[in-house]
Description:
binds phenylalanine, 2 strands
Amino acid sequence: MSSRGNFSGRIGFILAAAGSAVGLGNIWRFPYLAGQNGGAIFLMIYLGCILLLCYPIMVGEIAIGRAANSDAYGSYSKLGGRKWGYLGLFGILAGIMILSFYNVVAGWAFGYFLHISFGDLLNEPDFGGFFGTYVNDIIDLSSWAGFSNSNLVFSLIFMVLTALIVAQGIQKGIEASNKIMMPSLYAILLGIIVYSLTLPNAISGVQFYLVPEFSELKVRTIVDALKQSFFSLSLGMGALITYGSYLSKLENIPTSARVISLADTSVAFFSGLMVFPLVHFLAFKLNIDPQQIGTSGPPLIFVVLPQIFHEMGPVLGRIIGGSFFLLVCFAALTSTISLLEVPVAYLVDQKKMQRKSVVWLIALLIFVLGLPSMMSQGMVESLNKLTFYRGNDFLTFISDMSDISLTVGGCLMAIFISRRWGMDKFDEEVAQGNDRYLNSGTRKFLHFSLKWAAPILLGFLSVLIIVEKFFGVENLF
Ligand code: PHE
């Protein structure tokens, strides 16, 4: 085990796995999906998905990795034979796909952090127009307040930071960086929430977020909540198999999974609690309907929030806005390192390659794979409007494909555990580090979910997501 690397203990593992989970999904995507899906009702279904489906799959994923002590491919093939190894490879490819577009959005956030903290982005009167040009012209080399304006450069820097950390290995790289970034992230998040709750009209934002309106419930809400829960908890593609493979047999898997799920869910919940009061404050100030801005989708944090920071005045806006985007960067970085670790672990374990050289090779490859996503925001017309994908852009396409691969991956993982590896072997692994597990209610619940609820519901909902994405029947739901 030591030659592969391992976490120093429980805290290191939990922080790293929570770091993987907490990311752009929580701060960028969760609030806008909640905004588009009726707020509180989305939150309730989201919590249901986490409890019934995500938590059991998370325990399963960690157990697979720890039992096999190998990367995603190696773990499946060791426990289930060569054919199941393909499921591991499928996960590794999904990870590469996710990182390719994720790093682009992380680059946008990194640029915003620099420009708000040290530049003069907040003086910009037209944030929508600015964002449009910013993501469109990726190689804009004009410098702006001393910084390049090119998000090609920003996203390259982000990938280099990711690679630098992963190249340092498990304890010195992944664990050490998470131990700094995760507590800072919580501190910043709580600080901004306290501030945003003091703003005028904040309470109406809290109300929208916390009081359910059942008439808003649509099939679409369920599908969105499910895909978001898998993405947010980093499930279904082997990130937690890989991290689990560095975990000691003395640690308690169900308890760790509980803490990780709670950490991730609380950041998503708190992000909503930070964003909705801000949105309602802005609506109040501009005298418009909050619905209009709260449902703005992906640009929510890049267009609406800067406008709010602008309203706060030059000094406070810079401090709160800069801290917000620093928070986003920390969250994204702890996730990108987990995504990069998945293919790296595969090549180190299976092909016996050197960690340091593999890291740079894969990082470069994924950066290049991200270029079409980066160029799809207006720069290249054919990527901006994909004819085979109902006129959506390439970044949306890749992100949708990632969502599908995670729920399909999760469904197959539950089938693997219950029908191939076997519940007895699963129990044996989970019982290590947890003496009371075999007689516990947790065990009964995990069996129910992994044998029945997860394969059936995930299978069914995955089909729904695929139909919705490819045939555009969202209007039917
Ligand atoms: N969970 C991360 C987020 O919420 C994204 C991610 C998905 C990371 C899958 C690793 C694996 O941003």
